[in-house]
Amino acid sequence: MPTLDLSATSVDLTRTICDIPSVSDDETRLADLIHEAVSVLPHLEVYRDGDTIVARTNGRRAQRVVIAGHIDTVPINGNVPTRDVQVDGESYIWGRGTVDMKAGVAVQLKLAAELTDPRVDITWMWYDHEEVDADLNGLTRLAATRPELFSADFAILGEPSNGQVEGGCNGNMRVIVRTRGVRAHSARAWIGENAIHSAAPILARLSEYRPREIEVEGLVYREGLNAVRINGGVAGNVIPDLCEVEVNYRFAPSRDAAEADRHVRDVFTGFDVDIVDLAVGARPGLDAALAQEFVAAVGAEPRPKYGWTDVARFSALGVPAVNYGPGDPHLAHHDEERVPIAQIEAVEQGLRAWLSGH
Amino acid sequence: MPTLDLSATSVDLTRTICDIPSVSDDETRLADLIHEAVSVLPHLEVYRDGDTIVARTNGRRAQRVVIAGHIDTVPINGNVPTRDVQVDGESYIWGRGTVDMKAGVAVQLKLAAELTDPRVDITWMWYDHEEVDADLNGLTRLAATRPELFSADFAILGEPSNGQVEGGCNGNMRVIVRTRGVRAHSARAWIGENAIHSAAPILARLSEYRPREIEVEGLVYREGLNAVRINGGVAGNVIPDLCEVEVNYRFAPSRDAAEADRHVRDVFTGFDVDIVDLAVGARPGLDAALAQEFVAAVGAEPRPKYGWTDVARFSALGVPAVNYGPGDPHLAHHDEERVPIAQIEAVEQGLRAWLSGH
């Protein structure tokens, strides 16, 4: 069994761990390697729960930071093993997981080994099952079994953010908007009531909807309200009695669950609305002193994070949290997923600069 | 093996043949019984093609009428064997096939045996696979192998028409109206283009559409334009790149295929429209002398037929054709399918009055 060499460059470490497939539910091999590699480091106290590995420095500092990254990926689609590619003169590592988010994990692993005496205590977390149902997420399990591990003054998630600091995240809600009608033979449509026709105002309101931009603690969050699925119909000669539109609402972290719910029900007044999923966002938390020092040290311009990430989990616990990792989030899950080598190096340097400065 | 007793009443014959299941593709047992029963009748010349039976009188009359009925049914749903039921003081035979259209076939079988010397020559046709794809229809096959059997001056389909004469039938067209967009993560919807939102005007036009009523040869045909299915979406967090609306257009028999096509494309101007199915209707043909005599003899008030039936097949061959059978078409395919006994008797008397009068 190969071992992970944490003294390799973060770029080489990225290649190595991307070439060890770890699609959600198949993380054990990579988790074993990480566990083995960090267990030999005397400055870290290591805890394992399933395929989630936690490694903590000794607790002599006044403040503690959680730095976390998930080790699973979405399914591979002919894009493992990785390849080195050049695009428009820039060098990339191409392949599944390079962006989301093994380059970030590689940087974290390297620094976990290297920084034996950081300026703040660090709780490193490498976890499983982030790309699937939240119920399965390694952090959900850990929060239930070892909640004290989440205690910290600040948290950094290594999610891809183009090497910039992306603060907080939008909330995420999915609802089903439903119309009902009465079935009839389509040769005698006037006997029935067409549920698909009744859905016309739902699509009209979505199409006319202008999403808001909302400033939260200095960052502007762009919201979104989108149909992601529509379904209706029985047969080619039957007037349909049901039409369902699944709508995804992405809402600013300044709104709580009740406000998000109210807003969606306002938009769809007159229609039956069922919530199927709801996760509030995370405030950027950039007003925390530690966050400001971090942003200054890494030399980044904070931006809002639009997608929902596990920062919300920390935010809900009162721990300010940001996303900071190499890779363009637009390429996450993409078959052409690839991370610029320069961004891996920049994030490594940024984190090192902040964590090692006393 | 039981034999069919064609001297029984048409009501008893209805019970008997409904209790012999003959869902499309499983008509052989019933076809065998019909074949056996009519083959012994000396006044009929019998021809069989698969499960379609044709029985013709001798050809001494100046005019010939086709009288046809399909022997298959839609699937049984706990409604065979038949039962005698009373609803609001009226006596019915309840069960699959009673309306669509074994009561009509029972009347035809009885009269085929009884009328040894009718006033016009008769070509009786009992055929398979009407309830499924037109390709499989017994008449499609017969028209290919024995087209001369369709030669006639008038045709009567025993399709349920509440014991009234329903002239011709509407045409039937199905199209897919399609919108395309660009996929994106729904957290960054502005990168993509939502194909479901783009379908808003399709539903709006359908919802606002007022179907026309068109008089053809004295009968008023009611048209209809209806979404029968809608489908779009990739996943709960992806902006959809495709939405398809399946639209069913029922159009008056005065319109040909080109006109129907033009009308649908006009309604959906600006959208991609694909025809998936198109069958023109049938003019009522009630101006034919034979048709007028028939209507007068059976004492019925002609009405338009809205659903597409095999009358269109005869109409396309230049043979005026009407629907005349017991049973309410609204109860066809219904789990509560049931035929009023009085209508079976009335249709039997109507047909006998006309066919036996010299």
UniProtKB/TrEMBL annotation, chains A, B:
A GO term for molecular function: succinyl-diaminopimelate desuccinylase activity
Domain Peptidase M20 dimerisation: 171-268
Keyword vocabulary terms for this entry: Hydrolase, Metal-binding
EC number(s) stated in the UniProt entry for this protein: 3.5.1.18
The protein, known as: Succinyl-diaminopimelate desuccinylase
Annotated organism of origin: Microbacterium insulae
